[in-house]
Amino acid sequence: MTVAAHDPRPKKVQIADALRTEITDARLPTGHRLASLRDLAERFEVTTVTIGNALQILMDEGLITSVPTRGYFVQTPPIDADEATGPVKRDEINAINSEIRELAARVAELEKRAGQKGSA
Length: 120
What we know:
Layout: H1 11-24, H2 37-44, H3 48-60, E1 64-67, E2 71-74, H4 90-119
Antiparallel strand pairs: 1-2
Helix pairs in contact: 1-3, 2-3
């Protein structure tokens, strides 16, 4: 699949729209790991930088999350504060997601250190 040259939208937006459709149509379910940047770049016939920019759009929307050294994953669709029921609100969910990303980064750093000690 390539991005449309005649489409006035930037390539990153076209790619984000295509991936968003796959996520919202449940072709990419919650927890699904997206293809690598390189594989997505080949699929859409663009650079990995353009793919990274498209994925950033989806992260900003809360549709995917990045786990350092692991990849990009579809996350549970964000909940509007008006739609939230019970004691958990969107701010709390966002705070938890932020903590998860921080912990994942710490785990990746510890794994990196452990690998360096093992090779010494």
